[in-house]
Specification:
The structure holds two protein chains of two kinds. Chain A is built from twelve helices and no strands. By secondary structure, chain A is mostly helical. Chain A is globular. Classes of the chains: A mainly alpha, B alpha/beta.
């Protein structure tokens, strides 16, 4: 294998890993767009959703029925969150909401483990995670069907959510709520319904992300930590931008792989755990709103 | 008249109550002879599969012992504290569990090298045995420097030596290892780096190229590490991961770069059913080693299933996990506690009484798990026979190689010792002596 081909392989692997990070980051963006809150519970939602999905399948439900039931369950989680967490804290500071989402994360982690147990589950989506021979023969690269599926799912979600926010009434209402909840409410936009829809959508995105990650690494508690991978993605892409989530994911994925492979050995390895945060700090210094985030202008 | 009857009745009642209460108090004082054990469990979080199985077995065995009259009449009590496999929380749990009802713990089992390193220096001061069942600080095996630390059964340096011996056998002999390349893929922690001193030394002697690659936890994403492995084209990979996420991901990533699984050797704490299942077909063929073999056909395991689980007192929600790798390992650890307690009672003339930490330490050091004794207990074949001595706190130093067949582990070898146990022991003694010198410790003189 030539050095150049190896470099290309590292970059491609990074880009594919980046799409997996983007799937997690999307859930954060949805909540942030609606309430300007960084939802610390998103990692727990990923774990909760996919564990419930696998649990329903273990109870004998067919794949698609289990998928629908889990979406309904995530809707219920969204409803309970709106009623029991967001509504009582309405008009509180963003910091208060942030703390509330940390608490929500602990509740979801505990509920999931209490309901379904702590055993690691296997999730077989019927998509192989083995290198595709045709790609090896043609390009000399090792890419699996699961990598490609994750990329396609991420693209589909981003296009779908972008259209939803841009061309539907719900999307318009959501943008209005995000800009000024008080004004939106005064002109008749149902704030509660918008919040419920957004949290449900974030739940569905969490389920899809959990399924992709669960198929590769098993359905288990460590999925909660995926939130840590999404944070630098959001800082770079912008907290409120759906396309930003995918671009940020691709940048983080590719750069962390290149840094780990070429720079890592000089630092004793395992730098991809912190290297994305270093990159994110540079972005915070020079472009705090991220690549696609809205510039915040405040009157002094 | 009525007053007299009432007076007599009161006197009689008082006498009866006094007699009964005396009997009751005596009875309590007999029943109060208890020995308290700490359970520093990790039931939630990324390491839950390991913690629930291991500590579940310890509780199951203590229940079993109590159901059969305790240890010479001494009933076992315990208290749990959740560490989440976190070194800081392990220290907190150690402090919290240290004493209960005026009785101090006699042993502590962190089930984690980072946690063991965090509490190890308190052991002598607190008179508590640190029982590292095949994990932890390796040079703790030198009892002259670390009188309160035990590595039974078998530490990481023996483990890596057994693995390299197995590789040599597969390659056709040590002379065939010259020029071979081994990648040590490990979690970026003290635990992941623990086998390296022995591994580097053996690799140098054999002319093997050793490449060290680390994974940041939790390790759900390992593409860069596996791309490096693909580039290095090693002959073998030794994997030293922690948590089912990291362990199963390594196998799926190996499959993605088409690295053969029968050239991977997993660490004991990555070699459990819970680590293999999530990887599906990608796990098939992976080698691992065990210091306690899985299986529910061992008489003691069957007895616990019948008595403890049969009466609804089993600790695991899923009874099918009884007999799994982590559960049997926990059982092996608990058996050693109870054997040490028996030894301590006999050695110090306290049969039927609770023992102190110092007495328990003596009992632990006197462990002699012969084939016959293992047979009596009902775990013959589950662990290798071993004995502990004043200087050697490791025991057998033996491991059995297993291979995952897609559904369960199959035993590939018998109990194997390193090619040159004296060589490994020498490394332990040099390391312990260095620590003793740096910390002004005068090593104990052993007979």
């Amino acid at each position: 294998m030539t050095e150049f081909l190896f470099f290309i392989e590292v970059v491609v692997a990074g880009l594919l890993a980046g799409t997996m990070y983007s799937l997690v980051a999307l859930g954060f963006v949805l909540i942030y767009k609606a309430s300007s809150t960084f939802n610390f519970a998103q990692g727990a939602m990923v774990f909760f959703a996919v564990l419930a999905f696998v649990g329903f399948m273990e109870l004998g439900l067919p794949f698609f029925v289990a998928f629908i039931v889990t979406i309904l369950l995530m809707g219920l989680v969204g409803y309970c969150t709106e009623r029991m967490v967001l509504k009582p804290l309405m008009n509180q500071s963003e910091d208060t909401l942030l703390m509330a989402t940390i608490g929500l994360g602990f509740v979801l982690e505990g509920l999931a483990q209490a309901a379904w147990g702590v055993e690691v589950r296997r999730l077989d989506l019927g998509i192989g995670d083995f290198p595709i021979q045709w790609i090896i023969d043609t390009f000399g690269l090792f890419v699996s069907a699961l990598d490609l599926t994750a990329g396609l799912v991420a693209a589909f979600l981003i296009i779908g959510l972008s259209l939803l926010f841009k061309y539907t009434k719900m999307g318009l209402g959501l943008r209005a709520v995000a800009d000024d909840p008080g004004a939106a409410s005064s002109i008749g936009i149902p704030l509660n319904n918008i919040m419920l829809l957004v949290w449900t959508a974030a739940g569905v995105v969490a389920l899809v992300a959990g399924m992709m990650w669960g198929a590769r690494a098993g359905v288990q508690f460590a999925l909660v930590d995926l939130a840590l991978k999404a944070l630098p993605v959001l800082i770079i892409g912008g907290f409120s931008s759906i396309p930003g989530a995918i671009i940020g994911g691709l940048i983080i994925g590719a750069s962390e792989k290149v840094l780990e492979v070429y720079i890592g050995p000089y630092f004793g390895g395992a730098i991809e755990g912190w290297a994305p945060y270093v990159l994110a700090i540079f972005f915070l210094l020079y472009r705090p709103e991220g690549l696609f985030g809205e510039k915040i202008i405040r009157r002094v | 008249m009525i007053f007299k009857i009432f007076k007599n009745f009161t006197i009689a009642l008082t006498a009866i109550l006094t007699f009964l209460s005396t009997f009751f108090i005596l009875n309590i004082s007999i029943a109060e002879e208890k020995q308290y054990f700490p359970i520093a469990s990790s039931r939630v979080g990324p390491y839950s599969a390991m913690g629930t199985g291991y500590y579940g077995a310890q509780i199951d065995y203590m229940n079993y012992v109590n159901m059969n009259g305790g240890v010479n009449g001494v009933m076992l009590t315990w208290q749990e504290c959740e560490t989440e496999y976190n070194a800081v929380k392990t220290v907190e749990c150690y402090q919290r569990l240290l004493e209960k009802d005026g009785q101090r713990i006699v042993v502590f089992d962190t089930l984690g090298t980072p946690g063991a390193y965090a509490v190890i220096n308190r052991m002598a001061e607190d008179n508590v045995v640190l029982a590292q069942y095949g994990y932890g600080r390796t040079d703790g095996a030198d009892g002259r420097v670390w009188p309160w630390v035990f590595n039974a059964a078998s530490h990481y340096w023996s483990q890596i030596a057994v693995k390299m011996k197995f590789m040599a056998e597969q390659e056709g002999g040590i002379d065939k290892m010259k020029g071979k390349k081994i990648v040590h893929l490990h979690i970026d922690s003290a635990y992941g780096r623990e086998p390296l001193p022995a591994m580097r030394s053996i690799a140098k002697d054999w002319g093997v190229t050793l490449v060290e690659i680390s994974i940041p936890p939790p390790g759900l994403e390992q593409q860069s590490q596996w791309l490096q492995i693909r580039k290095e084209k090693p002959d073998w990979v030794t994997f030293w991961g922690a948590g089912s996420g990291m362990n199963s991901t390594a196998m799926t990533n190996a499959a993605r770069v088409a690295f053969p699984r029968d050239r991977m050797m997993y660490v004991t704490f990555g070699a459990a059913e819970e680590d293999m299942y999530p990887a599906g077909d990608a796990a098939k063929g992976t080698y691992a080693v065990a210091n306690a073999l899985p299986g529910d056909n061992f008489p003691l395991v069957a007895a616990i299933k019948e008595q403890v689980y049969g009466s609804g007192k089993g600790n695991l929600a899923d009874e099918s996990r009884v007999g799994s790798v982590y559960w049997n390992r926990g059982l092996g650890a608990a058996v050693m506690w109870i054997e040490a307690l028996k030894n301590a009672q006999e050695m110090h003339g306290k049969v039927g009484k609770a023992v102190t930490g110092a007495e328990f330490r003596d009992g632990y050091e006197a462990l002699n798990m012969t084939e016959d004794r293992l047979n009596e207990i009902g775990i013959k074949g589950m662990v290798a026979p071993f004995s502990i001595s004043c200087a050697n706190h490791e025991g057998a130093g033996k491991f059995a190689v297993m291979q995952w067949n897609g559904e369960k582990f199959e035993q590939v070898t018998g109990w194997e010792a390193p090619l040159d146990p004296a060589y490994i022991r020498n490394l332990v003694e040099v390391s312990a002596a260095k620590f003793a010198k740096e910390n002004n410790i005068t090593p104990k003189t052993c007979p």
